[in-house]
Amino acid sequence: MIRHLEQRVQHLVKSGTISNTIKTQGTIPTCQVSTFQNQEVHNDRPMYGHWGFTSVPPTGSQCMTLSGYGLNNNKFIFSTHDINTHPQNLKEGEVKVYDSKKQGIYLQEGTSINIDANNIIRITVNGKEVVSVKEGSVYVQGNLLVSNGASGTFSDQSGKVITVQSGIITNIS
User: Fold this and answer.
1) How many CB atoms neighbour CB 80 within 10 A?
2) Which terminal residue of the chain, N or C, has fewer Cβ atoms less than 10 Å from its own Cβ?
3) Is 64 helix (H, G, I), strand (E, B) or coil?
4) Maximum distance among all Cα pairs of the chain, rounded to whole angstroms
5) What's the rounded Cα separation, in Å, for the pair 22 and 46?
6) What distance in Å separates the CA atoms of residue 171 and residue 173, rounded to the nearest whole number?
7) Which has the closest alpha carbon to 69: 4, 16, 2?
8) Phi first, then psi: what are they for 170, rounded to 5°?
């Protein structure tokens, strides 16, 4: 009896490795997880996360598993971590959402929001791209409305330079 209880306690929480591609076709992502240095392999284990966030960790990521009642046959994954892609040197209170290609949204404590993209940053509303940033240029698809008027120098497609102060065109050359 005591040996049986000891085994259930041993199986309650385990670290493991995601050992194949995560399946995301169903309502709950599932994957294969290896525990006890690949001595145990569990197929189609559900992977739970926080509501409103979803991710597909790379194969080989570490994970933590929980087995209800300590039974090894009803294991699920509740936490994942990949040492190769995890951002480092964040300060207390900072947040970074990131992917395996080093792209991310970084909320720096009290200073800025940084968006890192490998190619294009797109803002889409109702399935339609409204703003994109590529190679240092900002593209706006639609009308640009500035509440207090814009100031600056702009070039049109023909090369004319337009000077605007507080929303009023003051010079075209």
Assistant:
1) 20
2) N
3) strand
4) 92
5) 10
6) 7
7) 4
8) -110, -15
